[in-house]
Amino acid sequence: MIYMNKCFIYRVITILICFISAGYFIKPMKCYGENDKVLILYDRSMEYGSEKNLLSALVKSQLSKEKEIKIDKINIDNPKDLQQYNEIFILNIEEENHNIEALKEKLKSYNGKINWIKKASELLNREEFKLKTKTYLYLDNVTPFNDLNNLIDEVDYLKDKGIKFFIEVAPVFVNENLKAMGRFSEALRYAQANGGKVILKFPIINSKGVNGTDTGGKIIGDRLKEAFKNYTNYWIYPVGINADEDLLYREDLKSILENTDTLFLNYKEDINIDIDNYEIKAYSNFIQKVDLEDYINDEKIRSKNAIKLESNCNLEEFKSNVDKVLNKEINLTPSTKISSYIKFESEIKNNYGSIFLNNQEVTQNRFINAEEYENAVNKTINKENPIKEDLTLTNRRLEIFSGAALIIFIGILIISRNIERKRFFK
Amino acid sequence: MNILDYLVIYSLVVIWITIFMNVILVIAGYMYYSKVNKEYMDEELESYPFVSILVPAHNEAVVIKKTVISLLELDYPIDKYEIIVINDNSSDNSKDVLENLQKTYYGRNLIVINTDNIIGGKGKSNALNIGLQKSQGEILAVYDADNTPDKNALKYLVQTLIKDKKLGAVIGKFRCRNKDVNLLTNFVNIETLTYQWMAQAGRWYMLKLCTIPGTNFVVRREVMEKMGGWDTKAITEDTEVSFRIYRMGYKIKFMPLAVTYEQEPQTIKVWFKQRNRWAKGNIYVVIKNLKYLFGLEAGVTKFDILYYTLVYFFFLSASVISDCIFLLGGANLIEVHIGGYETILWFMALLVFALSVMVAVSTEKGELNVKNVLIIFLSYFTYCKMWAIVSVAGFYNYIRDVVLKKEAKWYKTERFS
Question: Domains (ranges, CATH) in chain A?
Fold first, then answer.
């Protein structure tokens, strides 16, 4: 009995050790499940004479709630399989819409919640439009042309105030080997080591194609990939993307935006949307950038907001802006409190502050200066391309030789076995 | 490329040359095994030359009785051989044991020479030389004091020797008597089998070249007298004598049907001391014979000079270097810049090693079993590394002895009851 008890105790201890070890070695990862899906049917995105885009507001409100969205214009062919949607929004602003009756007929079979919105006020006065669930601090407009000493001071100030923040960086895809890039990246690594999480800004490409169309998604996507790679090469690890609102509705950019689950959106009021049969994937972190004033006045806000602070200004002004935020007693969520991923060839996962590049942890808990970085990179380059003496051919010959020897030996062993067997039966 | 890269290339080249040579030797050894299996030995000889069996013994009371009795029971006319036990400055009761045996086997040619620390106690070579002076046989046989030869062993050795005038000596096979005592004796058992079927049988089949193993061999008296007996400075007198026999124009043949059983070291300490002596002794022999490498008289022993040089100087150093680089590289303390080296090659080396040993072991009835296969694989990571340490220590001791002008000390292997 004593022995049985001992066995039981040992088992319990072993299991506990396994659990504790597992808990120690395995970092918590957020699981991404299937999100809710909503359907938005609309006939017009804006009220007549208004500049407020209701469709956009509705889309953002749903994206903030981590919903996947399908957008369709109201017409007689509206979706057949309505049951796949958790909720349906009908933005029926046009007074006379001949398709409404047919739609109503179709919706009879639908069991979920249907939200009919006929006026802007019905939408904008909804409770969810006033709700602020999370608020982050966002260092805006950081480029290699900023005063980098000033940037360091800004980071130090935020650190002194105990603020973990996001820092938006412009995509760099030309002259990435210039010394200036080395200095810029050093400053960004400093930010990373002191509570900053990097957000990659969408490239601003103003040029038009020969036929007057916008620059294609492929070119933009390539630029973004290049910028992403460039930053990771400098050990800067973006954890999300920043994009203008209107880009959400560009079919050619959809696949690029789907490379991340964390999107910081630049508000655009006068956005013009004319889309049909369009889907937007769910984002785990759909965060709208807002000015402090708008935030305080409950303007342009979503459930998740990032109060943007201009980085490219003098330090005193910056400090004053930070102090304003703090004086308003806004409950700032640390940038380390999100889980995210972004993937352009290589993948970065941000697991509540721990950064993984292609599943290898690269979290920078201390500042890596330019010299240390250079030494480490040179070491890596030497590791990757060190081969001055290649023995591949010799090794191939050795493999053939040993293979032949092995075949002969196996043959001999078979013969020996047969001899031994004969001896045994004799 | 830095010094480490050159060391990696050095160890790769040396290790694979050794592997290549051993593969050839194992195959040749197996061919000799097949040939010997078809040979029939004469159970009766037309004439029996007189044989003097020399048994050097220093503090061998634990095993000497069994050895002498087994020698007395050899299938050889009792009036045609004498047993000379050189009780070399023993401090145990060897003398009493041997005297009792003389009384028990009164009338048999059992001679016991007791030496003191003035004329004796100077090692095996000196003891053999004392025995040589006292002996009468035209053929000399040597057995270690822990041996129990098969009844036919001496007859087969003599028969092989007298059939071919070109043979200066014939060596038999030795088996491990205590192989199942512990893991170490299991390793030694496999090692001895491999050595004999690879190095001895393989070299004999290919080059008519063998090395006297120190026990269970016969040698013509005239040969030993011409060379002035055993070299007392050599602590591996057997290897040293082998080189001289070849330089005299004779050959040494391996006759595996003449079997003796001997006791192998059962503890690491004893094993280390014995192997350290071998390593040191063989380094002495290699250096002594290096000058013959370019002369004509060395004949096929040039191969042995090269083989021993390869094994004791190059292979074992390469093995140590390779292990050190592997460990330091694994700990990220060093990095090498050699491309194309694949893990498969290391795996192939391991397989070639294991299968070559298995082939050697398969020549002995019942030895190729699951247990031994596991031991072979295990030995690659353990026993072989122990050998590397022994060789480094042996080399160090040799250099130390040369620098300090110390006289080579013959370590007598401790026996177990």
Answer: 37-128 (3.40.50), 132-389 (3.20.20.370)
